[in-house]
Give the backbone structure.
Amino acid sequence: SIAWPWLRVMLISAFVGLLMYIVFYILIPHFAGMQAFGFLGVVVERSVKNLGSSRESLWLCASEMIFQKPWFGHGPLSFAKNCSSMGIAAHPHNWFLQIAAEWGGLALISLLFALYKGVKALLAVGRSLQPTDVRGQAILTCWSAIAFAVLVDGLVSGLIVMPLSQLWIAIYMGLSAGWVRSVVGKNLKSGIFVFNIISVVVVVVVSGVLVIGIMATRLAGEIPENNAKLLS
């Protein structure tokens, strides 16, 4: 019942969107003597015949990369190089496999821990809200649904590498974290200060390692480039 207002809006929006699709992309072209536009039918047919839509090959290649270098990975954006022979995509369309293959198992474990803490903090807000707080319950439902959608959609898409989706994910994280802080801020324990200090230290150290790794990769790529012979 708490999530019903949000679910009602989503269901109405989905119905209106489907209705508009049928009217503008199917009915109007049909009565105008034209072929139907859109790709809804193609998506359904493709999903029935090929459930993974050729993603199985991408996931297999990413898995092979993980087995080759399970702890530290092959480096950022290395999937495009290692799996380019397939000619399908430059990323595995799966954030879990991509982080594990390119950044390594240690980075994946760190990310999963951060996700766990974030989702746990978000769900813990529910205990601070009153059942009669309709606005607060609706906001919590929205934040929870968005987090679930991002994590699930990222298992079959490339949202983790697309600049626009990266921007929206960053905006979501900032807004949801700020809202959580505003709700439970009065109940924070003093230990949270120590946790924040440790978090800052970890972020600085990881950022330093990342910068060093990127610079080392760049220098390694420049060596053969500088030693290359010019064509006469």
Observations:
- The mean pLDDT is 78.
